[in-house]
């Protein structure tokens, strides 16, 4: 199967860049998720090879949830992204809200079980 991976990727991923194809092949071989905002690459990875795909908003949400980034960091990141004309602001907002909700549920669950 490994020998057929690269030709299959090239056949199905004609509209995906070489860098994305390399990342998909690496993720497949190592059985890891791939982080990409390229919709064609995500479709190729998830539907053709059943690789878990994640996006930059996923990463942002996880960093907020794990408190590696705080509210001030979030505001700075979104501000810079918008200033550069990036299209992900609505997705960042959704990920941020989901992370805060998950944090609240985690804290609430910890308080309930410790009582």
Count the E strands: 2
Helix content: over 70%
Q: Structural class of the helix and strand makeup?
A: mainly alpha
Total domains, how many? 2
Terminal-residue CA separation: 53 Å
The radius of gyration is 18 Å
Q: What fraction of the residues are assigned to beta strands by DSSP?
A: under 5%
As residue ranges, the low-confidence spans are none
Give average pLDDT, whole number: 86
Order of neighbouring strands in the sheet with most strands: 1-2
DSSP summary: helix tally: 6
The shape, in one word, is flat
Q: Output the helix-strand order.
A: HHEHEHHH
* Largest sheet features: 2 strands, parallel
Short recap of the structure:
By secondary structure, the chain is mostly helical. 73% of the residues lie in helices and 3% in strands.
Structure write-up:
- The chain has 115 residues and is mainly alpha-helical.
- It has helices spanning 2-12, 18-30, 39-49, 56-65, 71-83, 89-114, and strands at residues 34-35, 53-54.
- The chain has a two-stranded parallel ribbon with strand order 1-2.
- Helix 3 links the parallel strand 1 (34-35) and strand 2.
- Helix 1 (2-12) runs antiparallel to helix 2 and helix 2 (18-30) packs parallel to helix 3.
- It is flat, with a radius of gyration of 18 Å.
- The termini are far apart.
- The model has no long low-confidence stretch (mean pLDDT 86).
């Amino acid at each position: 199967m490994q020998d057929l991976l690269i030709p299959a990727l090239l056949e199905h991923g004609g509209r995906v860049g070489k860098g994305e194809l390399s990342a998909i092949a690496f993720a497949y071989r190592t059985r890891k998720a791939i982080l990409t905002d390229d919709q064609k690459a995500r479709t190729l990875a998830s539907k053709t090879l059943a690789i878990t795909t994640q996006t930059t908003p996923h990463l942002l949400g996880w960093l907020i949830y794990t408190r590696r980034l705080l509210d001030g960091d979030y505001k700075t990141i979104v501000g810079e992204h918008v200033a550069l004309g990036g299209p992900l602001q609505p997705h960042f907002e959704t990920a941020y809200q989901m992370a805060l909700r998950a944090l609240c549920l985690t804290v609430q669950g910890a308080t309930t079980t410790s009582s």
